[in-house]
Automatic annotation (TrEMBL):
This is DNA polymerase III, delta subunit (HolA). GO terms for molecular function: DNA binding; DNA-directed DNA polymerase activity. It comes from Alteracholeplasma palmae (strain ATCC 49389 / J233) (Acholeplasma palmae). The keyword Nucleus does not apply. Residues 6-81 form the DNA polymerase III delta N-terminal domain. Keywords: DNA replication, DNA-directed DNA polymerase, Nucleotidyltransferase, Transferase.
Length: 85
């Protein structure tokens, strides 16, 4: 399984959502876990745990994170370390 990380961001919510929707159409007919996190509602620790967990029900997992810009620097460093391992 090839790991890919995409970052979509911008000030125009409509265009960000449209790009995400376009990217997700690639997985429309595949068995894939789609997990959504809004960091306004979910602690960053839950996201980190999800990133470290292997999916048991499908070969691929898509994790969508909203409001990422609201995390503090300490948590951002922790997340960056995890993503570079």
């Amino acid at each position: 399984m090839k790991e890919r990380i995409y970052t979509i961001f911008g000030k125009q919510f409509f265009f960000v959502e449209k790009k995400l929707e376009t990217m997700l159409t690639e997985y429309k007919n595949k068995e894939v876990d789609i997990i959504k996190y809004d960091l306004d509602d979910s602690p960053i620790e839950e996201l980190i745990q999800e990133l470290q967990t292997i999916s048991f029900f499908s070969d691929e997992k898509i994790i969508i994170v909203k409001n990422f810009e609201k995390i503090d620097q300490k948590k951002e460093v922790k997340l960056k370390k995890l993503l570079t391992i």
